Structures are given as C-alpha cells and as structure tokens.
C-alpha cells in the first residue's frame, strides 16, 4: 500500500516537473518571437554600425525655434524647445557632419541633434539641452557611430540597440529554454530509471 502511494506521488511529481519544463520552453519561444519582431528589425535596419571618434566643431542652441517632435504630427502636447545642433569632425573621413543622439532622433526631427522626451515640459527640456551643450563643449572628443556604406552622411552618439544589448535580450530566453529542456531530460531519465527498476 505504501509502495503504491510512493509511486503515485512520484508520478505526480514527474508530471508537474514535465509541465514546468514544457511551460519554460513555451515561454522562451514566445520571448524569442517577441524579440524577433520588435528589437531585431530595429537592429538590422540601423546603418550606423561602425564606431569611430568624433571631435566637436561647434554646438549651437537656436532659441525661439519651433522644432516639432515629428513632422506632420498633430499632437497637442508637443511644445517648442531650443534646437541643439552639434557639428563634429568625423575622424574616419575628415568630414564635417551633424551629430544626432540616436537613430530615432533623426527620424523625429532631422533639424536638431537632441529631441526632448514627450514627458518633459519646456523648462526641463531647456535645462537639459543647455546641460548637453555644455558637456559637448567640455568633452571635445568622444566615440560615435557612422554609416560605412555612405547612405547616411551624419553620425549618431549611441545606438538604440547595440550588439551587447541584443545579446543581453537573447540571454534570458536562452537560459529559460535551456532550463526547461534540462528539466524535461531529467524527468525522462527518471522515468526510464523507474521502468528499469520496476522490471528488475
């Protein structure tokens, strides 16, 4: 009687462990799919892939210039903010080009090097832009990214999704997938050993 209870408890434990492993594998596959349709397209679309050194030539703030967050936008919360324009000397080619914060900055407003967040108000945006301009004047040389193919003549300060960020995004679903597969394999080994023991 006690043996039957132990066998029943073992089978329940194996079933739960198997369900856990399958659930982890299923969740990891969904995470892979989500990353594949959100982050990967932005990473592959970016042409600013090569890192080089940029030297600031001038950083000007144009006051009282309306710079919309996106062209043709009818968002009532959009406010005018000082337009920061940073021009740098590209070490790789020696050209004078305009610097943008990220790939998204160029799409939102190609006139300005920095676009404030929508959650910021006018005073916060002005203070942040002045701080950024002073930092550029203080630190004249810094790493930046350019397009080696020549499609884009401008440069960006940082990529939205760098290679390390993409690898980090794939790390967690990979660990979850590996853990789920390991649990399933251990359950199958346990079942196989139980069958052999019962046969003997």
TrEMBL record:
- Subcellular location as annotated: Membrane
Coarse class of the protein's main subcellular location? membrane
Q: Where are the transmembrane segments?
A: 20-43, 166-187
A GO cellular component annotation in the UniProt record: voltage-gated potassium channel complex
Question: Which terms are listed as keywords in the entry?
Answer: Glycoprotein, Ion channel, Ion transport, Membrane, Transmembrane, Transmembrane helix, Transport
Query: Which superkingdom heads the taxonomic lineage of this protein's source?
Result: Eukaryota
How is this protein situated with respect to the membrane?
Multi-pass membrane protein
Q: Does the keyword Transmembrane apply?
A: yes
Q: Which Pfam families match?
A: CaKB
What are its GO biological-process terms? detection of calcium ion
| InterPro entries linked to this entry | K_chnl_Ca-activ_BK_bsu
Tell me its family.
Belongs to the KCNMB (TC 8.A.14.1) family. KCNMB1 subfamily.
What protein does this entry describe?
A: KCMB1 protein
């Amino acid at each position: 009687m006690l043996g039957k209870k132990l066998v029943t408890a073992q089978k329940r434990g194996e079933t739960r462990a198997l369900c856990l492993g399958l659930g982890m594998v299923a969740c990891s596959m969904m995470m892979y799919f989500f990353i594949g349709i959100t982050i990967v397209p932005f990473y592959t679309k970016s042409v600013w892939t090569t890192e080089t050194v940029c030297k600031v030539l001038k950083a000007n703030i144009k006051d009282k210039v309306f710079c919309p967050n996106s062209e043709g936008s009818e968002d009532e919360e959009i406010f005018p903010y000082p337009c920061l324009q940073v021009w740098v000397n590209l070490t790789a080619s020696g050209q004078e080009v305009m610097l943008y914060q990220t790939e998204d900055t160029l799409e939102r407003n190609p006139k300005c090097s920095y676009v404030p967040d929508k959650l910021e108000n006018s005073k916060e945006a002005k203070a942040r832009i002045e701080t950024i301009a002073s930092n550029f004047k203080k630190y004249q040389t810094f790493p930046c990214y350019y397009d080696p193919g020549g499609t884009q003549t401008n440069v960006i300060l940082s990529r939205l999704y760098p290679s390390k960020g993409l690898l980090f995004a794939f790390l967690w679903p990979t660990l979850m997938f590996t853990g789920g597969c390991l649990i399933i394999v251990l359950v199958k080994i346990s079942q196989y050993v139980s069958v052999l023991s019962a046969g003997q």
